[in-house]
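Notes to self after the call with IL:
- keep both proteins in one doc
- input above output, always
- annotate only the second one for now

Protein 1:
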Amino acid sequence: MTKMKTVQQDNFGINIPFKYYPALTRTFSPIVLEELIKTGSSKYLCEILNDSGITKQLDLEMTVGGFLDWLYHNMSNNYRNEYVYKNALANKILLGKHTLNKSYMLTEFRVENCRADVVIVNGTSNVYEIKSEYDSLERIKKQVESYTKVFDMVNVITSSSQIKKVGLELPVEIGLMELTRNYKILTVKEPVSLKRHVIPEVIFESLRKDEYLKIIKTVYGYIPDVPNAKVFEVCRELFSRISPEIAHDEMVKVLLARGNKKILRDIITHVPQSLRAYVIDRKIDKKKAIKFEELLAKKLNTIIIPM
């Protein structure tokens, strides 16, 4: 696929110059969606739709939700960026294999000098490093090495076109998954359980203060009575003495407690599948959920002005 290729859409017959895809995919970024929810419009989205010629081809009577679903479907066929992978994991793993009552998904989770793309906790921990066809493999070894210090199951998910190349970069204990051309997630290689080998100090560094304090209280029965300036240092020392298995399992418990599962369950059933990763990632509260649903029901011509 060359950079200037034009893509013909099956359902709408809309031609999109390929060079506009990187900009169009930013529609699903928090900065654009947050602006849409807050103000009911987006200067960025208007400009890219007009510049690409899409505005003149779209039925502006369609809803915003319908437009976002169309754009996502387009992306999943023609330009699978990181968001497409995150959303596929949300729909097919978190919601397809688990339940929100007992599972939780986190994105951009800090581990040492890396950011894990997707983490799903559901009694154990599963991390998914995304390597789309537009991503470099330069840091993949360092990334999976860091993740083995924190998570039980470590996976890399990639495209059909580079599944072999990515597989050659991975240690034997790392799982390998493929987002297929027909938008299914295929397990190429199962991950090996690494819970016994995690490093408590690294887990500690990835947690919030209230989370590691809760674990310290659970394991030791008390929270150290020390000046605030000493809390981190003292707790880190105590945490380092916890066995890898216990440190891991307690981490899973505190991560499962993040977010409001009731609000998430309510809104996840009312938003298009294309937006589920965004909703999970942003931890939308009830007030914003209502505004978001109102936005999705609006007609596209209320937020897009043809030029």
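Protein 2 (the one to annotate):
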Amino acid sequence: MRILVIGANGQVGWELSRRGARKGFDILALDRATLDITDQSAVNRTVGRSGAAVVVNGAAYTAVDQAESEPELAFAVNRDGPAYLASACAAVGIPLVHISTDFVFDGQKQGPYFETDQVSPLSIYGKSKAAGEIAARERLRQHIILRTSWVFGVHGDNFVKTMLRLGREKELVRVVTDQRGCPTSAVDIAETILTIISIFWQSRQVPWGTYHYCGKGVISWYGFAEAIFALAAEYVALKVRQLEPINTADYPTPAKRPANSVLDCSLAEKSFGIVPKPWDKSLARMVKQVLAGEQDGE
């Protein structure tokens, strides 16, 4: 079975490509240099000739703050790209798995967000991702939209790598404490997608629609940083002596971020038997890989 992976150089796309190949899937992995998803003709041509049984879109404009000054580009990638992919998939009769984000919500809810909750994005990035979800739904019945949050992994840029760098460079690190969510390993997201694809390939009976997947456990960015430094100290000498909690108001950014990014993942468990993995265990594995050079052989 061939899987066409779009955005193969992103955190999830990279893990999906290597793990899919290990599991015996025929992976056709394309990065931005190979396929520009804002080029509709190129998308139609690529999907049509790929011979793929399913397409996974891991490509996205993810520079949250920069998107505020580049809305046209953000919408081109995050809305128009999924629209073109969904249309191309519909033309050849194959499903699309599209990765989305917690940023489609405004974070004002007290409890976890369900798939049925009304989206209300605060930022250009969030608005463009919400528009991409709509575009995919309108054009293709056979779709899985997988919302996730606070992604980290060994490949690409993310909060964990930033903290590992700052912890070795600075004595004082200040981190926001009034935003909470569920850190999620790119490895676990990739495995979730491969599980859904395997079920589709075996039975063809998949409940299409929107799902949530994130790591198990809720924490603030400050608490997440604490955990990162504690793990890192086992492998390297850290310069950081003080981790200071601050409020969002103390660290203004161009884009507004949701205070609550917690996603309820029970629908994915009910539909596919996918149980969220504890983020702290996935974090420990990643930090060991990055700092101790241990290869992930799973």
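Annotation: The first helix runs from residue 11 to 22. The longest strand covers residues 96-101.
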